[in-house]
Specification:
By secondary structure, the protein is an alpha+beta fold. It has ten helices and 29 strands. It is elongated, with a radius of gyration of 50 Å.
């Protein structure tokens, strides 16, 4: 038995040495010395690995084995305390991470969140002029956006059939929005209306001083600039100390508003600067009586002068809006021209109009119902001032003189047509070459406060009377009756002023209550057709010739009457004419 133990130990040592030798030789690659330098790998051929279940299990890592065991325990319902602690640890870690992330997000939001200012600071900011200017401007933009679709039905269904489409009556005049500013315009009569020469939706309205029974803290002078897109409030409210009797936009600078006042001053506002006057005339220079009529006239270097007329017949021409210290030209209509009738008569004019495109000649209407022709500058054949006898046009004060605006394609002769309205309930059409009216319109049953030509239609004009009625006339269709009539104001209110828009599609109507209403004319009524200009020219030319002939006959008859009246009928022989007998009996 001792021998057997020694042999076993010896065999074991031999086997170990052989194993180490084999490991050493497996790393050695001997060179056999062939000339081809070929190497021979003594390692055994690698065996193909078969991926069976046994191999896969043996290749699993310790982590995989532990996870697999935990999964088996979970499936068998035998959850260990270690697993529970790990789950709780993971849950607490994730929860703390989420809470930390939410807190960080809230901190970031709070850092960028606007802080509420104290009440005193908020009131100070909201009362500042800068904030109020921003607020007014932004709210106007929002209101325009909200009202821009009023003229268009956004819910229209184009696929809907309308069987009675042909049977519907199309309204020639559509009543639109009323523009009023609460107590500010209440009981203030509208004294003038004018549309902006640049912005089609903008128009201004001037108002008289408030009545005594209506107490107001506002100044007497008020001009509101309205937009058709924002009827709830005016775009600008211009004020001055004296009541505004006439106002208008500058022809080439639409941000400038010019006005004539009851004190005789000419006021200038700049909408881009402020709502109070930026310039005005002196009380000691120019007019000392109310200015009811004013107009801008072209001057040299594309500039515009201002011509104003006061009720005492005093005419002033101001060089431009920047030079109002003193007038460049002054005329006293009662003492120029050498006319005895003019010298003996007090001219109280409240309206005038330029003759066609000639800004040197104008026709003035007066409170005594007469028309005066005057020149502003001296000419080769006539001196400045009144150069002809007055024409007794009406039996009451003349409220307006409106010349036919120049229209492209219409002869210059038509620009010398003008219409006068009067408190004698009549409206008359005149031409500068005649001393008798071409037409007399006696439709109105009250004072005719205003009359205006359409700027696009040659034969269309509108009148407004004391009953609140507006009449639309078209001389190509009817010269005795208006083609359209509408009550334009509320009950027992007069139509004080009317104004056509630049495209002729709208009419702004001002009332004695202080409200202004917009009426839209159908295109068939407002816009002319191709034949209208020619037809109007031919009919007016024939009417002018007929009136001129009748006027010549009347003048010849007057001359004969004067001749008969100047003769002495001392001879007892012969028969005397009836005219001479009547003249003799009158003496």
């Amino acid at each position: 038995s001792p021998v057997k133990k020694d042999l076993a130990s010896t065999s074991t040592d031999v086997l170990a040495s052989i194993g180490s030798l084999l490991k050493t030789t497996s790393k050695y690659k001997p060179e056999l010395g062939f000339s081809t330098k070929m190497t021979h790998n003594v390692q055994p051929q690698p065996k193909a690995i078969k991926y069976d279940k046994v191999i896969q299990v043996e290749l699993e890592t310790e982590k995989e084995i532990s996870l697999k065991e935990e999964i088996e325990r979970i499936r068998s319902g035998k959850t260990t305390e270690a697993l529970e602690s790990n789950v709780k640890k993971v849950q607490s870690t994730s929860t703390s991470t989420e809470v930390k992330g939410i807190e960080e997000e809230r901190a970031e939001e709070k850092a960028f969140q606007a802080q509420l200012l104290p009440r005193a600071e908020r009131n100070r900011i909201m009362r500042s002029e800068k904030f109020l200017s921003f607020f007014r401007g932004s709210t106007k933009v929002i209101e325009r956006a909200l009202t821009q679709n009023e003229e268009f039905d956004v819910t229209i269904d184009y696929s809907k059939k309308e069987d009675n489409l042909d049977k519907k009556e199309v309204a020639m005049i559509s009543e639109g929005t009323t523009f009023a500013h609460g107590m500010r315009t209440q009981n203030r009569a509208v004294t003038s209306i004018m549309w902006s020469p640049k912005h089609g939706d903008l128009f201004l309205v001037s108002y008289a001083a408030p009545q005594m029974e209506h107490l107001s803290m506002d100044p007497d002078g008020l001009v509101l600039v309205w937009s058709t897109h924002t009827p709830s409030r005016p775009e600008y409210a211009l004020t001055c100390q004296s009541a505004v009797l006439v106002a208008q936009f500058h022809p080439v600078r639409p941000e400038i508003v010019i006005a004539g006042t009851k004190s005789g001053q000419i006021i200038v506002w700049d909408l881009s600067v402020k709502t109070t006057p930026v310039n005005r005339t002196s009380l000691s220079q120019g007019h000392t009586h109310p200015v009811y009529a004013m107009s801008c006239m072209p001057a040299v270097n594309k500039a515009y002068s201002i011509l104003s007329v006061s009720t005492d017949g005093h005419v002033c021409i101001w060089q431009d809006i920047d030079h109002l210290e003193e007038p460049s030209v002054e005329l006293d209509l009662q003492s120029v021209g050498g006319q005895r009738e003019v010298k003996d008569r007090d001219i109280t004019t409240t309206c005038f109009g330029f003759v066609g495109r000639d800004s040197n000649n104008l026709i003035l209407g007066s409170d005594e119902g007469c028309l005066y022709k005057a020149r502003i500058y001296d000419g080769p054949n006539a001196s400045r001032g009144i150069h002809s006898k007055p024409v007794i046009a009406h039996k009451a004060p003349i409220s307006n003189v409106s010349f036919r605006p120049p229209i492209k394609g219409l002869p210059t002769l038509m620009s010398e047509l003008y219409i006068t309205s009067s408190f004698d309930w009549t409206t008359k059409l005149w031409h500068t070459k005649t001393k008798m009216p071409l037409y007399v319109f006696e439709r109105c049953r009250d004072y005719v406060y205003d009359v205006k030509w359409s700027p696009v239609h040659p034969s269309l004009f509108a009148t407004g009377d004391g009953n609140g009625v507006m009449d639309i006339w078209n001389l190509n269709k009817d010269s005795e009756l208006p083609i359209e009539t509408i009550v334009a104001t509320e009950k027992e209110r007069t139509v004080s002023k009317i104004a056509f828009s630049n495209d002729g599609r709208k009419i702004a109507v001002g009332s004695s209550s202080g409200s202004t209403k917009i009426f839209t004319l159908h295109e068939k009524l407002a816009l002319p057709v191709e034949e209208d200009a020619k037809k109007f020219y031919e009919s007016m030319q024939a009417r002018i010739q007929l009136t001129s002939q009748f006027q010549s006959q009347m003048e010849s008859e007057k001359m004969r009457q004067h001749q008969y009246a100047g003769k002495s009928y001392a001879s007892s022989s012969g028969l005397q004419s009836i005219t001479s007998l009547l003249n003799k009996s009158d003496k």
